[in-house]
């Protein structure tokens, strides 16, 4: 397909380098809020529907953290429990976890304070897929953030999940956790104009020699994908293949419609 269209690479993939990512308004806002939370050692909540770019925003943040200033850990585990959390953090930072959960929790607290006070670095912990967390794991967030009688925080904690996580945290018995969130943002889909710009940007990144989607194709892709980047990628890749099989150099609305029918 690359040779047929005269491109220098494969567009609409997950492997695109962070410096080549399309910077939508939602992505800019998410990054700015997470960056602020990290610099000020805050508890941050990032939510958004599947495919809106939460993990991509986190990846950009991680790649820009200066290792001289920060110690970074990303955990993506829908079945995360308090015990697994402490073990994972301790092991990733080179400490053998104690067998008893209470002892592992003390190790964790000592570790975070040591990194902040002695190494002069800020620990940054990101927990993804948080909308799957059990109530006990959500309750544990209060203790994960509790240092010196809850008078200070040596770390930045960012939890990432789908919009249902916001509703989970609004129930009465989780109010203490909800109140601790100092920074929050909900990512949204691309607008119609951003969707067109996103597609053009992806094609430019692989040096496509000419316009490869008709105006009607742009409109159809937005209509079917609702501007969700992951879905846009799927429609564009499949529509390009459909056009290739028909020997067409430009994707038309008929190609996009055919892909939609197959899906």
UniProtKB/TrEMBL annotation:
Gene3D superfamilies in UniProt: P-loop containing nucleotide triphosphate hydrolases (3.40.50.300)
UniProt domain AAA+ ATPase: residue ranges: 40-191
Pfam families linked to this entry: AAA_22
Domain of life of the native organism: Bacteria
GO molecular function: ATP hydrolysis activity
Protein name: AAA family ATPase
Native source species: Lentibacillus salicampi
């Amino acid at each position: 397909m690359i040779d047929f269209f005269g491109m220098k690479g494969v567009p609409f993939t997950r492997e695109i380098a962070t410096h080549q990512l399309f910077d939508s308004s939602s992505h800019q806002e998410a990054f700015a809020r997470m960056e602020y939370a990290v610099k000020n050692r805050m508890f941050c909540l990032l939510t958004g529907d599947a495919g809106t770019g939460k993990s991509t925003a986190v990846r950009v943040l991680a790649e820009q953290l200066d290792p001289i200033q920060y110690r970074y850990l990303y955990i993506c585990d829908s079945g995360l429990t308090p015990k697994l959390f402490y073990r994972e953090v301790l092991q990733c930072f080179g400490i053998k976890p104690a067998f008893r959960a209470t002892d592992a929790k003390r190790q964790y607290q000592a570790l975070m304070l040591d990194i902040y006070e002695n190494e002069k670095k800020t620990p940054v912990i990101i927990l993804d897929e948080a909308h799957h967390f059990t109530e006990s794991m959500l309750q544990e967030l209060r203790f994960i953030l509790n240092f010196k009688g809850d008078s200070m925080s040596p770390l930045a904690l960012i939890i990432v999940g789908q919009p249902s996580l916001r509703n989970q945290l609004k129930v009465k018995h989780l109010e203490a956790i909800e109140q601790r969130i100092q920074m929050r943002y909900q990512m949204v889909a691309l607008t119609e104009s951003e969707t067109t710009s996103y597609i053009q940007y992806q094609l430019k990144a692989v040096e496509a020699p000419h316009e490869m989607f008709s105006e009607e194709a742009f409109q159809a892709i937005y209509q079917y994908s609702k501007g969700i980047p992951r879905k846009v990628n799927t429609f564009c890749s499949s529509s390009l293949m459909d056009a290739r099989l028909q020997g067409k150099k430009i994707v038309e609305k008929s190609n996009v419609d055919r892909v939609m029918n197959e899906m």
